[in-house]
Amino acid sequence: MRRLLGSVRARATLGATLVVAVALVAAGVSVLLSLRSDLIDQAGTQAERTARNVAAGLAAGTAYADLKLDDDEEPVQVVDDHGTLVAASEDLQRISGTGTGAVRPQAPRGSAGSDDEGDDPASEPGEIADEVTLTNGSATIDGESADYRFAALEVEVQGKGTLTVYAGASLDAEQGAVGTAQTVMLIGFPLLLGVVAAVTWLVTRRALRPVEGIRAEMAAITASEDLARRVPVPDTHDEVARLARTTNETLAALETSVERQRRFVADASHELRSPIASLRTQLEVAAAHPELLDLEGAVEDTVRLQRLAADLLLLARLDAGERPQDTRFDLGALVRQQAEGRTDVTVDAEGVTVAGARGQVERLLTNLLDNAQRHARAQVSVAVRRDGPHAVVEVADDGDGVPPADRERVFERFVRLDEARARDDGGAGLGLAIARDVAVRHGGTLTVRDAPAGGALFELRLPVV
To answer: Are 385 and 458 in contact (CB under 8 A)?
Structure first.
């Protein structure tokens, strides 16, 4: 049972069925109450009409024995102000819910000229009350018992005092109609709930079929580790279609990330192999022939290997989503510090405060300056200024520049343009990639375009604080 309710389809079916069941029960109760109230009101109206007809006869001076009390085969009583039953339906055998339980008329007490049978001579017209009191009760007439709605109506008759007429109207129609409605509901509601459950089950199965297709394809992708596969997108415009498209976008991003990681590992292995092999060769030669040791070359290879390891470690931290520290510092002062001691570098920097990891931004500026000096013919210029909400650093050289087709590719990892292929001159191709990643991590941008005097101009934008 728990496993079944763990299904979205089962929970949706159960939920829809419960909602409809509650609605049907509420509607059924409302209908039954309304039907019962209407039928009881109708019975009360009928009882009141009978009571007024009898009261009209009494008010007109009709003798008790001459009253027409058996026309509708409904129970009728006439009671005087002493509580004595003075007239009643002929076949009345039992009654409850009225002013008296008596069923046989008696001679009214204290009424002169009345005979033994309770017939009174005609008297002058009386007055009928406006208000009617309605009650429920039961009666037995000619051996048949039933429930009734009784109307009690007072009439003032001269010479007889205040008489109360009790007239009943059968509630069989109300009970029969309510019973029939209950039977219909007891039979129809379960059938209707069954139809609702079946329709909901079928509709949810059809609606969730694309979701099952997405799940199955994701399971296949996980098993095969083939991130090039995509989940099927249904030809609809609903949430399931948006889920499928989002899933495919996630798979595409994951595929790109994994491919990038594989390429990064392959390139890193290739780049590390060269200095390690060179250093090993020199050490092996030195071990066999100490007099041939190229100490300067060994140091250069070691430094190169150290820088490459530091670059790879920094990229790994950036890829891991390391958040920069919220340290405030003067970007202009940091640029002047990095440019100090470099020949052929001119600096025009104003003070602009930014926030972030000072060490990472310092590495960014170092990489930009190293790249500019590597490609400059004679001069490198650096400018720092504020442009609205951003601090702008421009590093320009007078070299050959970067072709428009390569202005995004130069920021890729391990990319060296043709004229900078030599590892001794072009490095490992990680400097600009690190600079771009650091800029992005700090909420900024790093782009390249042509410098006004020729060469390349790298523009760094960071938010000011």
So the answer is: no
* Cβ neighbours for 106, distance < 8 A, ≥ 6 positions apart: 84, 85, 86, 118
| Four-CA torsion 34, 38, 41, 46, nearest 10 degrees | -160
Residue with tokens 């059924």: 28
Indicate whether this model's pTM tops 0.85. no
3-state SS assignment for residue 67? coil
Within 10 Å of residue 106's Cβ, how many Cβ atoms? 13
CA distances from 169 to 49, 361, 402 (A): 10, 98, 106
Structural domain ending residue among the three candidates 178, 197, 225: 225
Q: 76 and 176 share a domain?
A: yes
Q: Do 74 and 89 meet the contact criterion of CB atoms below 8 Å apart? A: yes
255 and 148: one domain? no
pLDDT in tens, 221-252: 989 888 889 999 988 888 888 999 999 999 99
d(CA 162, CA 125): 13
pLDDT digits (tens, 9 = 90+) for 115-152: 444 444 444 678 999 999 999 999 999 889 999 999 99
Quick one: 29 exposed, middle or buried, by C-beta within 10 A (0-12, 13-18, 19+)?
exposed
CA dist 196 and 201 (Å) reads: 8
